């Protein structure tokens, strides 16, 4: 079963893609140039259409431009990546997801550059990436393959704490690496026993000069609860809401994941996908009990007191994740699937309520929660089509799904804002926990992520 | 963005005027939708600044006025006519600046009234 006779034509700000496949087949399209993160089936980067009885199909790609690499796929058949041509001038700059990369010490004294996810699609297919050590000036290049995957066995030299700046070029529009994608920070090496020294992730660049304080407390006070995680002054709602979902559905995972070393340090054992063995391996990260502070409160994740005792599991998890990723700046935005994968060792599923059957998504969420699988959802970006002011919801924000139900024939979803406040009116005390009809939910939410 | 609201105790001292109001008119262009370049969750670009005309229905603090023109700084929210709620304003010139990360959605009215009441007592 193949897709052929592809034709592209421009239609305003859209690209119409016509072609031929099997009769009545569903053809899915993912714009790799626009959504290099793969799991980011946002907005118009992912569309699908059903072929007619003769096999003819038409896909409308909003926001598509000349030069876009799109992946077309049919159920049960190999996908193919094609380039959008003949619809205008290619003015797209290279896109690259620096958060998908991490540095790991290797045996030769350098640091291997690898992907953190099972899915190593990290940028626009064919893009070239420049790595530059800001201290030594040394550079290294990488070229993504035709699917936007990162090459294996690439490494850089450096010392712990060195900042590696990344820049990308697509060789057409931005030819001189002028687009900086972000930074990676070289982590400490492990000792002979394989244990990484306690690593203090750098606070956000916006919080320079902030002081830290050692906090005494217990990792868990009465076990992990979904209301324990509370977002602080960094934009990691995807992490906070995912941790809350883990606490709701599988608190035992968190208790196994985070260990108190009894010496003022904690070790969090994340799961890292190893492309060579095609399996997940334990990747322990050790952090101290010192946290950036704002007055007497933690600056980032809250460390609330329960019966006078500080509960530390979430601040520790957030700090360790920041250390794992290269600093608090590196966790400023992201996807729930990254957290589920890092904590559970399996990638999750993602649904887009705007292009997929909302009844099927509801059923999938219901089934997942019954099976104790964490579920996180997220709103869209503020736009002419979706305005969030006065809705009680926040644009570009992740929420934990606490439950779904059917009441008087109406589907309802129960959600939690990871701030621990701010919710639609009429939901009682402002604790961030609220319910809303599913029919309203699908109008305002862009994504549903379910852990495997 | 998607950061929690600033603590009310930090913003309240800056608010020389607090009104319940409805947006009558706005100026400022929202950037064209760039749906295909949406960043990961929490990484959206801030919405641009606006100037807004407000119809005041109640004054909770400061000088009373029926209408006000205010400046909405670049941030995580966008205002359209019909939006309403409590607006905390500073004394910037030429227009007061709307305080709070989410404008009229930043603080529930009940929390504001309680904070103002406890300041008075």
Mind explaining what this structure looks like?
- The complex is a heterodimer of chains A (452) and B (121).
- With 452 residues, chain A is α+β, with helices and mostly antiparallel strands.
- Chain A has 6 helices and 28 strands.
- Chain A has a 6-stranded antiparallel sheet.
- In chain A, a hairpin with a 4-residue loop joins strand 16 (258-260) and strand 17.
- In chain A, helix 1 (237-249) crosses helix 2.
- Chain A is globular.
- Chain B has a 4-stranded antiparallel sheet, with helices on one face.
- Chain A binds chain B through residues 31, 34-35, 37, 40, 42-45, 62-65, 95, 97, 99, 231-238, 332-336, 378, 381-385, 387-390, 392, 394-398, 419, 421-422, 430, 447, and chain B through 1-5, 30, 33-44, 47, 76-80, 83-85, 102-105, 108, 111.
Radius of gyration from the alpha-carbon trace of chain B, in angstroms: 15 Å
Described by the principal axes of the CA atoms, the overall outline of chain B is: globular
Q: What would the average pLDDT of chain A be, to the nearest integer?
A: 85
Tally of extended strands of chain A? 28
User: Main beta sheet of chain A: strand number and arrangement?
Assistant: 6 strands, antiparallel
Largest interface: A-B, 50 and 33 residues
| Rg of chain A | 23 Å
Strand content of chain A: 25-35%
């Amino acid at each position: 079963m193949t897709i052929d006779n592809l034709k592209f034509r421009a239609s305003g700000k859209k690209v119409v893609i016509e072609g031929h496949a099997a009769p009545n087949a569903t053809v899915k399209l993912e714009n790799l140039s626009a959504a290099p993160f793969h799991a980011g089936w946002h907005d118009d980067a992912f569309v699908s259409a059903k072929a007619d009885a003769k096999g003819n199909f038409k896909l409308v790609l909003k926001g598509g431009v000349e030069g876009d690499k799109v992946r077309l796929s049919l159920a049960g058949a190999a996908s193919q990546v094609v380039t959008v041509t003949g619809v205008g001038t290619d003015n797209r700059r290279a896109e690259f997801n620096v958060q998908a990369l991490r540095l790991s010490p290797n045996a030769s004294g350098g640091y291997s550059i690898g992907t953190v996810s099972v899915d190593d699609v990290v940028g626009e297919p064919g893009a070239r990436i420049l790595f530059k050590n800001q201290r030594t000036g040394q550079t290294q290049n990488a070229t993504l393959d035709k699917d936007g995957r990162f090459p294996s066995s690439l490494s850089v030299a450096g010392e712990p704490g060195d900042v590696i700046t990344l820049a990308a070029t697509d060789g057409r529009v931005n030819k001189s690496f002028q687009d900086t994608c972000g930074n990676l920070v070289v982590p400490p090496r492990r000792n002979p026993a394989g244990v990484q020294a306690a690593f203090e992730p750098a606070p956000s660049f916006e919080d320079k000069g902030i002081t830290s304080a050692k906090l005494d407390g217990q990792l868990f006070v009465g076990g992990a609860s979904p209301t324990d995680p509370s977002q602080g002054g960094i934009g990691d709602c995807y992490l906070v809401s995912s941790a809350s979902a883990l606490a709701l559905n599988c608190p035992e995972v968190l208790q196994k994941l985070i260990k108190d070393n009894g010496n003022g340090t904690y070790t969090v054992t994340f799961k890292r996908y190893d492309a060579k063995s095609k399996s997940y391996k334990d990747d322990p990260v050790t952090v101290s009990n010192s946290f950036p502070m704002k007055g007497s409160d933690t600056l980032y994740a809250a460390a609330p007191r329960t019966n006078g005792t500080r509960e530390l599991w979430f601040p520790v998890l957030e700090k360790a994740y920041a250390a794992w990723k290269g600093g608090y700046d590196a966790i400023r935005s992201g996807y729930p699937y990254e957290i589920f994968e890092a904590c559970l060792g399996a990638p999750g599923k993602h649904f887009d309520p705007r292009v997929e059957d909302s009844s099927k998504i509801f059923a999938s969420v219901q089934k997942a929660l019954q099976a104790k699988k964490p579920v996180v959802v997220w709103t869209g970006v503020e736009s002419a089509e979706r305005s969030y002011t006065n809705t009680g919801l926040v644009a570009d924000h992740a929420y934990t799904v606490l439950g779904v139900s059917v009441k008087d024939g109406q589907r309802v979803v129960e959600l939690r804002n990871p701030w621990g406040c701010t919710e639609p009116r009429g939901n009682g005390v402002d604790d961030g926990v609220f319910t809303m009809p599913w029919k309203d939910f699908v109008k305002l939410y862009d994504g549903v992520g379910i852990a495997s | 963005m998607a950061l929690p609201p600033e603590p009310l105790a930090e913003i309240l001292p800056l608010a020389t005027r607090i009104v319940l109001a409805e947006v009558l008119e706005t100026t400022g262009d929202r950037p064209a939708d760039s749906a295909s370049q949406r960043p990961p969750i929490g990484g959206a670009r801030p919405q641009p600044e606006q100037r807004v005309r407000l119809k005041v229905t109640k004054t909770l603090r400061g000088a009373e006025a029926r209408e006000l023109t205010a400046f909405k700084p670049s941030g995580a929210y966008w205002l359209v006519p019909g939006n309403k709620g409590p607006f905390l304003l500073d004394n910037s010139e030429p227009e007061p600046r709307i305080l709070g990360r989410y404008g009229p959605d930043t603080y529930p009215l009940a929390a504001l009234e309680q904070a103002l009441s406890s300041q008075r007592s």
